[in-house]
Amino acid sequence: MQIGVLTMPNKTHSFVIFLSALLFPASALALPQGTGRDLVESVCTACHGTNLIERSSGYSREDWQFLVSTMVDLSGNEPAHEAILDYLAATFPPSGNRASTQVQGPLSIRFEEWQVPTLGQRSRDPVEAPDDTIWWVGQWLDILGRLDPRTGAMEEFLLPAGARPHSVTIGPDGMAWYTGNRNATVGRFDPSTQEITEFPMPDAAARDPHTAEFDGNGMLWFSLQGSNMIGRLDPASGDVRLARSPRENSRPYGVKIAADGAVWVACNGANCLLRVNPQTMDVSEITLPDEDTRVRRLDVDENGLIWWVNSGLGRLGRYDPRTGEVTQWPSPSGPDSHPYAIAVFDNAIWYNESGVRPDMLVRFEPATETFQSWPIPSGPVHAGILRHMRTTLDGQALLIHQSGTNHIGRVTVDREDTNP
Domains of the chain (ranges plus CATH)? Predict the structure, then answer.
């Protein structure tokens, strides 16, 4: 399948969203009364619910202007643009209703940011390829993107309509593999030919491939959250095998491969972790404390310890597969901080708090059991959300994103400040 290439910001698409919103407004929870409310409801709900506006920490008019500019191009209707900004600034000024708790510490870090060309795509899940380029997916607009961080040049490639890619990873073959979350496929994109090969799910009940990772044998493992399954794709044969989670509605989410080949999967719908035998595909459950525990993502350190975010209770967790011991630490911003993404990086555990504003990047030092945290920028504002993070191939940087403002980011530790 040959695909189209986008190399410039897609303003036409954004204006089409604006026009369709006026003609076919989506239903949503009513916002507070005020001049411009109906316009905000119709335009904004073309892409997301008004609950995201109400759950924000609020902004000045200048910051609302920047935030709106990362989502939709309203330059074709200046009066509407001004009315929307007036309403947002008057109704949702800066507030501390979801304030985060920053923890100071000895480390200094550096954020680099790139805003992707096409607005409203919800860019996410950046991953590095062997040539140092960074790939991402634009979930809402069926986009696969590539960034050259040395020059800032970006390309966007159109995926099959309705794929709604949830994540992307780079295979041993150098191809970009993405999960078609809405069309029940896993896709392979060849960067040299721009050809796409789709691998459909063999079971109609397997409808939503979610997060994917390659193991050491070149097999692609992926979760299917709503389908309550874990899948394995053999790139050589195209064969797809599926296994069900032993608990109903456990909602398999994040996936990581341990050094021994075991496949570990987070449960976003229950208090559990899942371990998949890579040979038999038997799935076993590790039940975690507290029924309200929910795990978005996890990672495995060099000692085989499983680190996970307790999104439901605002904690960082650790599971030792050898002893069965579970240890948890309260996240700095409290039980409603909703930790989300996580990665082992720089001899520590890094994750974000997505339920607060700013969205905080948190570092946990296992040796001392101490935290340090930083607000994650989204251009000149703090919006969000970071949903997945991974390290660069050399382990020297952390790749992040802010899907709410269509930014891709890279984090490095400044060693000059810590080792004078």
Answer: 5-91 (no CATH), 108-418 (2.130.10.10)
